[in-house]
Amino acid sequence: MVETAPSPFTPGYGRKPVIFGGHREELTDLRAVFDTLDFGENHSVLVSGLRGAGKTSFMTTLEDHARDAGWLVISDDASAGLMGRVMDSTIPTLINDMTPASRARLTSFGVWEFSADIEYVNRHRSVKPQLRSDLTALSSALGTSGGILITIDEVSSGKVRLRELSRFALQISHALRDGAQIMVVFAGVKVSLDALLAEEHTTFLRRSREVEFERLTAPETRRVFAETARVGGRRVEDEALTKLVSLSQGYPYLVQLAGDYAWRNNSTAPTITLADASVAHDKAIRAVEIRVISRVYGDLSDVDQKFLDAMAQDDDRTKVADIVKRMGVSDAYVQVYKKRLIDSGYVHAAGHGYVQFSLPYLGAYIRRQLAAEARDGGGSGGWDAYPAPDLPS
After folding, report:
1. pTM of this prediction?
2. What does the pLDDT look like over 140-172, one tens digit per residue?
3. Could you give the residue ranges of the DSSP H alpha helices within the chain?
C-alpha cells in the first residue's frame, strides 16, 4: 500500500500557512522587535483586510515568533467580556506558566496573591484590579528577557463592542506610558478599525503601523503554490501551476483551499498534475462561494447589495456614473456606499471614476443570483402564480 502524503496546504481557519504569501517585510520587522525589544513604530499594529485574506494567519505567525523569543502572548477576539477573560483567565494561566524566578519577582508588586510555592492563588484585592497594573507588573518581571504581545482579532463596529474595546485600549495605553514592553495588534475589516479609532481613549492607536491584506500578486501566488508543494515533497506541473494561480486569483484562502484539493486528488503521486488542478478548480470555487462569498453578500445592507448588483452588470470594472444611473440615485449617495464598500475590502478603485470587485468571483456569484431571480419570478421560486388559499376561519 502506497503511503498518502499529508497536505501541506492549510485552508482551516487561522492555521498558519507553510509558506506565507506577501507581507514578508512586515513579518521581518515585527520579528526583529521580539528579538531586540527595539519597537520603533511597532508598539501598535492595525491589520485590515477582507475575510480569508490572511489576517488571522498573520497574527498566528506573529504569536509563534513571539513565544519563540520568550515573550508572553495574550490572544483573544473582540467579543463581549474581553477584559474579564484576559484578566481572570489568560493572565493567571500565563503567570503559572512562567519560571519560578519570574513568579518570585511578581510577588513584590502586590498585584496577585501567591502560595508558599509561588503558585498563583488569587488577585490581590486591596486595590481595584486593573489591566494596566497587570501588564506593567508582568513586563517588569520579564525585564529585558521579553515583552508582551497582545493580539485581538475580529474587531467589530458594533457600539457595545467598541466601547469595551476602547476601555481595553485605554488600559494598554496607560501600561505603555508606565514603561511596559507591549506590542498590541488589532485585526478586522478597515471600516471596523476606523470605527475603533474614532472612539474615545484610542488616540495612541491612530499612530499605529498599518498592515493591509489584499490579493497576492500573480508571481507571489505562483511562489506560494510551488514552494508549499515542495515543502510537502512534491512538485507542480507548469500547466497545473498556471491553472491553480488563475483560479485562485491571489485570494489567500482560495490559494490554500485549491492547493489542498489539488494535493488530495492523488496524494501518492510525486507530481500535482493538470488533472488534479482541474478537480481543484471546481471544488474550490464551489466551496469558496458557499463558505465566503454567499455570506459576505448576505451580510451586506440592502443598499450595499444594490450597489454591487449594479457593478455586476459589467464583466470587468464599472464606471461609477453607470452605478448612479442604474441605482437611480444621486452621485453623492453612491459615493457614500462606494467608500463603505472600499473600506470593507470588497471593492477597490480601478482608475479615475471606476470601481472593481476585490473579492474574486463575487461579481459572477451576483450575476448568477440575479439571473436565477429573474427566471423564478423575483426570487419567489415561481410561487407568485400559485398563491396559498386562505385558512378556514
Report:
1. 0.85
2. 988 888 999 999 999 987 777 889 999 999 999
3. 24-36, 55-68, 82-85, 91-97, 100-107, 131-142, 159-177, 190-197, 218-231, 238-248, 252-265, 274-288, 294-299, 302-311, 320-327, 331-344, 362-375
